[in-house]
Design goal:
By secondary structure, the protein is an alpha+beta fold. Helices cover about 55% and strands about 15% of the residues. Strands 5-12-7-8-9 form a five-stranded antiparallel beta sheet. It has a three-stranded antiparallel beta sheet with strand order 6-11-10, with no helix packed on it. The chain has a two-stranded antiparallel sheet with strand order 1-2.
Amino acid sequence: MRISTQQVFLSNIDNINKGSADIFRTQQQLSTGKNVLQPSDDPLASAQIQKFKKEIARTEQFSGNIDVAERRLRLEENTIEQINNQSIRLKELTLQGKNGVLSDGDRSAISSEVSEILKSLESLMNTKDVQGEYLFSGNKGFTQPYTYNNSNGRYEFNGDDGRRFLQVGPENKIASTDSGFEIFEKVAKVPGYVEADLNQTLPIISNIDINNGDAEAFGNYMGANAPLTLAVAAGGLLTVTDKDGQFVTAEDPAVSLNAYDLSTNPNAPTIKIAGVELDVSAANVGSATLDVFDQHNILNTALDLKDALNNADFSTEKGKELFNKQLDNVLKNLEGIEEKNIGSRAGIGGRLNALEQQDLVNEDYKLFTTEALSSFEDLDYNEAISRFALQETALQASYASFAKVQDLSLFNYIN
């Protein structure tokens, strides 16, 4: 086979170009530390590299969520602990206020301290996190959870009972916040803190006795069914319906209150509904709406303590008895508040421990994934340096041999 001079030149140029490309690629690998520079180098390895990078990025997002959740929960834990300290102080002041030898000035001084505690509690229960969202508003992060209602003189909760969850692992979500409804509102009911809210056109209900009944059961029943509508028609027929218009069944007597005849006993018969006694009179034809008013969170408890101290009447035995009963109710409610506070902090502590364990799992998973990524992506420097030296030698040999070949000519032998 004849090999022309042009073939020799083109072949040597191709070999030199290939050698230059190989040594350039190796030089890029050495400068970047990466074995795969582009997908075409190794399609299978490139697919694995992208998969591992996505897993690492997802795990880093989980770690970021853990940091956010820990920050919120520690802020919440610290805030609840401060509220608990204020609750303990209110308890001490209540016991101090029950001392019968105190003067009006002494009780006024205690009331002044209660006022300062109330301001502190209002601030704590309206705490914001670093994102500017209220900590205890549930899912309504930008709604102030507790505000004072001038119309009824009580602090009201404006959030909802939702909790905000963060994904901290592939199959693990943890609540990073708690609603004030769960922490501060769901306190065991005390009879003195379940009050009937009665609105009637004419006085058909002459008396409501909650203290002798099961106040908690009544509060739960009314929470599910209130408001109740009571109506006395001409002839003394009483009907009682719940919020859905369904007739209510009385416990004593055990009858459906869809047409209860009051005319047989016009002297205010007693009917028991959900453990609470109602004295109903047939003397007037009219209607009444019965609801409960039992927001007994720590803010309202502090308000009640302050009002009892400021309005105490020790000039009569009845006044003294009323004052002591009011402070007894405050003490019982503070005990329920303290118990709920302890339970809430225990729940937060459990979640913080779970976050710590999940963080360790995420770190281990990230380490294993990074090692797997390295096996596909990272360069073996010993092999690459040896290959670079070999490619450099081969390229130099190509240059040298090409110089020798291009000097060959028959005319050098013709005289």
